[in-house]
Write a structure and sequence with these properties.
CATH class of the largest domain: Mainly Beta
CATH architecture of the largest domain: Sandwich
Strand content: 25-35%
Number of helices: 1
Number of domains: 2
CATH topology of the largest domain: Immunoglobulin-like
Mean pLDDT: 77
Low-confidence stretches: 61-69
Length: 211
């Protein structure tokens, strides 16, 4: 009786050792797997946070549209101004006319930035391109005060056929930051009914230029 009991105890002990070892290995592997998964989740969360930070940075640094740009509260608007083309001078095949921008409101406003001028036909479509200029104006215009720029219209007679675009009847003048143009009727002029390469605008002054 004692020997079978002894063998039974040995078998039981072996089973416990093997089973316990197996449990330890499985349990250990399970713990390691959980730790690995937890580590991967933490790493993923960190990567998502970094990605979100980059997205936020790109959103904050993106180029603003004209409508979102900061405009001074006292800036001159199209409704405050009028535009007129006055006689000027001619030189080297180009006729220069004084562009007069006048503050027609009853308040002082800030005329600051670059003015754009486009030639138009009778349908209001742009003919050619805008006047070439690098001039940046910065004037405080009192009520009824004006500034002037000389706008150069190259003589179409100095160009080969097809180089100039005909049919110009008006100029669309866009004050700085404005989307509504000031329109100048220029029909009947010898030099302003065509758009030619070299159409230009110079810096503004408080007095008419050359006239």
């Amino acid at each position: 009786m004692k020997q079978p009991i002894k063998y039974s105890l040995i078998i039981l002990a072996t089973a416990l050792i093997v089973g316990g070892g197996t449990y330890f290995i499985v349990h250990h592997q399970s713990v390691d797997s959980k730790k690995m998964l937890s580590s991967q989740v933490i790493s993923l969360r960190k990567n998502v946070s970094v990605l979100n930070a980059h997205i936020l940075k790109l959103e904050n640094n993106k180029t603003p549209s004209p409508a979102s740009l900061s405009v001074p509260s006292n800036a001159c608007t199209s409704s405050d101004l009028s535009a007129t083309l006055l006689n000027g001078t001619g030189a080297a095949g180009t006729a220069y006319y004084n562009l007069q921008i006048k503050n027609t409101s009853n308040k002082t406003c800030l005329y600051s930035g670059v003015t754009a001028i486009f030639p138009q036909n009778s349908s209001g479509s742009i003919v050619g391109g805008d006047a070439t200029t690098n001039a940046v104006a910065n004037f405080k215009l009192s009520a009824n005060e004006s500034i002037y720029s000389d706008v150069g219209f190259p003589n179409p007679g100095n160009f080969s056929p097809g180089e100039c675009a005909s049919g110009v009847t008006s100029l669309a003048v866009y004050p700085p930051g404005e989307s509504k143009p000031l329109t100048i009727n220029i029909t009947g002029s010898n030099y302003t009914n065509s758009y030619c390469p070299g159409f230009s605008m110079n810096a503004f002054s408080t007095k008419p230029i050359g006239g």
